[in-house]
Design brief:
This protein is α/β, with parallel strands linked by helices and about 750 residues long. Helix content is about 45%, strand content about 15%.
């Protein structure tokens, strides 16, 4: 990590504590660079999300709505979110493995959206703590672009939230988090300009500042040919009109380059035009950094077209001529690698196009995060707090900036609620920073005690025992007895022992907790709990598969409860086994925890077996444990009787493979629904029905079939109807731009 005290502090909190962080700072202070370093070097399981598609692509993450599958409607606290579609098993694995959730461009995230994230994490991690116990890193500058709030949304949310900003989130107010403000500005070097921008950012603009600022107002300014000035304006229509007008004035012939889009890549996330029309002499801007070692260009660098060829474009930047080829952007989705058990990024689609765009003008919104040598600021129509600051702070120097309209104090809108919050957080930040050593020690202690917190296994077993007692009392009485005894043994041999051991760990001094003697006791305790859990659960899982329930709904619920218990128990067994063998360190614990969850959730065998490396029996390992709270000898469990059904049922006939499975396989091989229909001699609508079934079975995610924009447009259209609309009504509402098959798929997930 860079040797910057503030960045180093942010790294310490992110990597070595469980404290959530709001990382803020002026424009150009290195927030984006820090995020890239965090993604590359952290030992934690990290997911990066952002409020918009472009921000997500730039941050190397995914959109909030896509990852958490949230509806576009506002979130009302206390009202359960109706999932747009069910989470796939892989998505559940990712969420349960998650250590750190990074939310980039947090200034644009509304308070209700952050609470919707909290709701999803609590629900799918089965953890009642705020955000499901996940650490947050929120990156952004509240003095820049603010969240979008329509009058209708404001009316709905006003009774629940005092402001639309993320800091009004109810869940966020339930946790302690630290604010770290980056103050070293890398973008600008002139102290006068830096101070001017800071005054604008905080809304403390004096008469002298206004005078300095408006000294750059130059009416009828015409940028010299080849000077590279870019016009920053407030609305897309202004920028498009200006670019098209400038392009039309060039007499040379135009050339249009068509992007290559593969897989799923939403149009709203395109980093440049899919049909890029250029002429020699056109002013362009690079829209990504040069990935080559030469580093010839960067995101935001301005130049002019010199030569247009089929496979390359030459751009002049001052005296330098840069030959640029088409570049590829990836639309990624997180998944768990079955081979390694680690969280990886799965490429859903690619967008290949030359990494440039017309750049006589762009919107202030799209300029966020960019740096310009020369810019014309047309912010007279600014309509949101922070817009003027974002525009001005893109410039590297005061001399390189020209104002198209004079800036008045009224145009520099700041929200006093933001200023008050920032002031409070700065005071809190100093206190948290002083406590950093204590917070790091608390994190170590939290992970050690988490290892022996086994209540989740108890809850899963207790739910299954209750279900079996209610539904299998007559047909499988011995199964009922097994679970009744297992609940008792689990309480006496595991929970009560853990309840004595955990307070000891919590009361220890920091020095004692890190001592070799204690860490050795942690290893022996891990062995005891591993072997005891294995002794209790291994026979039960060998027999639970004997249960057969004819009622589909009851059977489905039974399988769900068994799966929950199996995955929870096996994940903890794998983790305990790893710590018993390797000992406890924070990186080792986090890595083994991720692998354990991944392996447990992909294992469909429902079998728990002893690893060869754990040679001791439960009784032997318990007796050898030095700590008295975990050395209680465990009574051997008698061999469980073979399960005998009271009611004999005929074994079901071997079912014929369902037709949808074949269509699913062909789709997985890369064939489109049209191609599958042709090969199988079936109607295309039938193939779509098959793929919908595959999605319901968790084999496919809706994003495998439809892009985000189609899903969102159909969802929004459905939600805007008062009653239950017909397929035709939905299609007409969307001007026939979607098919009936696409509508059916979305409706299936809206109403599973």
């Amino acid at each position: 990590m860079e040797q910057n005290e503030e960045l180093q502090r942010a790294w310490e909190f992110a990597e070595h504590t469980h404290t959530s962080i709001f990382l803020t700072g002026k424009a150009g202070t290195g927030k984006t660079t820090f995020l890239r370093n965090l993604q590359q070097h952290s030992s934690k399981s990290i997911v990066v999300v952002a409020p918009t598609g472009v921000a997500a692509i730039n941050a190397g993450g995914v959109t909030i709505h896509s990852f958490f599958q949230l509806p576009l409607s506002p979130y009302i606290p206390g009202i359960e979110i109706r999932d747009k579609f069910s989470f796939s098993r892989d998505k559940l694995r990712i969420i349960r493995m998650l250590d750190l959730l990074v939310i980039d461009e947090i200034s644009m995230v509304r308070s209700d959206l952050l609470d919707a994230i909290d709701n999803a994490l609590r629900k799918y991690r089965r953890d009642s703590r705020p955000f499901g116990g996940v650490q947050l890193m929120m990156i952004g500058d509240l003095q820049q672009l603010s969240p979008i709030m329509t009058p209708q949304d404001e009316e709905l949310l006003a009774p629940h939230y005092p402001t639309p900003y993320f800091f009004s989130s109810r869940a966020l107010q339930q946790i302690d988090y630290v604010t770290i403000e980056l103050t070293k500005v890398y973008r600008q070097q002139n102290l006068t300009f830096i101070n001017l921008l800071n005054h604008i950012r905080t809304g403390n603009l004096g008469c002298e500042d206004i005078g300095i600022l408006n000294s750059r107002y130059i009416p009828e300014f015409i940028a010299p040919q080849g000077s590279g000035y870019i016009r920053l304006t407030t609305h897309n229509s202004f920028a498009d009109r200006y670019n098209n007008d400038c392009l039309s004035r060039i007499a040379s012939p135009s050339v249009t380059y068509h992007a290559e889009v593969k897989g799923t890549f939403p149009e709203t996330s395109f980093p440049t035009a899919s049909e890029l029309t250029l002429k020699a002499g056109a002013q362009v801007m690079f829209v990504r950094n040069d990935p080559s070692p030469a580093r010839l260009y960067y995101n935001g660098k301005i130049g002019h077209i010199v030569n247009l060829q089929k496979d390359k474009i030459t751009v002049a930047c001052g005296d330098e001529a840069i030959e640029v080829s088409a570049a590829e952007w990836q639309n990624t989705r997180y998944r768990v690698d079955d081979a390694t058990g680690e969280l990886t990024e799965d490429i859903q689609g690619t967008f290949t196009q030359f990494p440039i765009r017309l750049a006589w003008s762009i919107t202030i919104h799209k300029s966020q995060g960019l740096t310009f040598e020369h810019a014309i600021i047309d912010a007279g129509s600014s309509f949101a707090p922070g817009q003027v600051y974002v525009a001005l702070s893109r410039c590297k120097s005061l001399e390189g900036m020209v104002l198209a309209t004079p800036i008045t104090p009224e145009a520099i809108m700041t929200d006093t609620r933001v200023s008050e919050y920032v002031s409070r957080q700065q005071n809190e930040a100093a206190r948290s920073i002083e406590r950093l050593p204590m917070i790091k020690e608390a994190y170590f202690r939290m992970l050690v005690t988490e290892l022996f917190s086994l209540g989740a296994i108890w809850q899963c077993e207790e739910r299954l025992a209750r279900f079996v007692g209610e539904h299998c009392r007559r047909t499988y009485p011995q199964i009922v007895t097994i679970h009744r005894e297992l609940v008792t043994d689990l309480r006496t041999q595991v929970l009560e022992v853990a309840d004595k051991w955990l307070p000891v760990l919590r009361r220890m001094s920091d020095a004692d907790l890190h001592s070799d003697a204690t860490l050795e006791r942690v290893k022996r305790s891990a062995t005891y709990f591993h072997d005891t859990l294995l002794k209790l659960f291994e026979p039960m899982f060998e027999r639970i598969t004997d249960v057969s329930i004819s009622n589909k709904t009851t059977s489905s619920r039974f399988k769900e409860l068994v799966t929950d218990l199996f995955q929870t128990t096996k994940a903890r067994l794998l983790l305990l086994d790893a710590i018993a063998r390797e000992g406890f360190t924070i990186p080792g614990y986090l890595n083994n925890k991720q692998r354990a969850i991944a392996e447990a959730t992909r294992d469909k065998s429902k079998k728990i077996t002893r690893r060869k490396s754990t040679a001791k029996s439960a009784k032997t390992s318990a007796a050898s444990t030095s700590h008295p709270d975990v050395s209680q000898p465990a009574e051997p469990v008698e061999k469980m009787p073979k399960v005998v059904k009271v009611k004999k049922e005929k074994p079901p006939k071997e079912p014929k493979e369902a037709s949808w499975i074949e269509s699913f396989r062909m789709f997985g091989d890369g064939l489109t629904p049209t191609a599958i229909a042709e090969r199988r001699g079936l109607a295309e609508s039938t193939i779509w029905t098959h793929l919908t079934k595959a999605m319901q079975e968790g084999k496919l995610d809706i994003h495998d079939l439809l892009d985000d924009s189609t899903i969102d447009s159909i969802t929004k259209a459905v939600e805007n109807f008062d009653g239950v609309p017909t397929l035709t009504e939905i299609r007409e509402r969307l001007r026939n731009k979607v098919s009936f098959n696409e509508i059916r798929i979305v409706l299936t997930h809206l109403n599973p």
